[in-house]
Amino acid sequence: MLRNIKLHVEADYAAMSKKGAEIFAEAVRAKPSAAYGFATGSTPEGMYAELAKLRAAGTDFSQMTTFNLDEYYPIKADDPQSYYFYMKQRVFDPLGLTKTNLPNGEAPDPEAECEAYENKLANAGEFVMQILGIGNNGHIGFNEPADRFVCRANYVPLAPSTIEANARLFDNPSQVPRHALTVGIHSIMMAKRILLLVSGAGKADILAASLQGDITPSVPASILQLHPCVTVVADKAAAAKL
Ligand code: PGA
What we know:
The chain is of the alpha/beta class. 34% of the residues lie in helices and 19% in strands.
């Protein structure tokens, strides 16, 4: 493993969630009013529940500013499938956060919204920590496998593999949005520290390809090999091929 990548292998999903929460909360205690990057998806749900427990036990998360990686487009914020809705339910309300930012899935012009979000990111100052998950296809945010890395926030068609993976969360696969707004690779790479959570045997191959394979835009997470400080918290099943 490259020496910029610190790997924690935990027994199972619950232990991964707890470890991830400990690492994140420690960063927030050291810099309570800094900017932090958040991710959605099934993987960090357990960690967010653990963070809520840490709040109940006295950790104050309320001063931080948060930026999410991505949002479906178009989607209304109050749609239960929106990432805004996910964050409000699992993170913003439980942790008492008010200085929160996501790309706006209701913006009239998606390209202009990406530009506006990019400007917000540029003015946010240093991100102390960026939470990440990894897609089955190696995406980070909605930076899907492609011929090149895209630096800036962008409006993207979702890869068929992502639509298929996310269909489990919808009543009907035809309801999965076909597009999204995502931060680009640049803002992910600018975070001082990356906290990558990975769970399950289904992610073992892509995690190994990302951390130990070629650095290529066809595996977007492979760019993390060039980041100076990556902490990976994986359960045993996800770490099996490392
Ligand atoms: P998942 O998504 O946590 O729901 O597997 C991860 C991702 O797509 O980044």
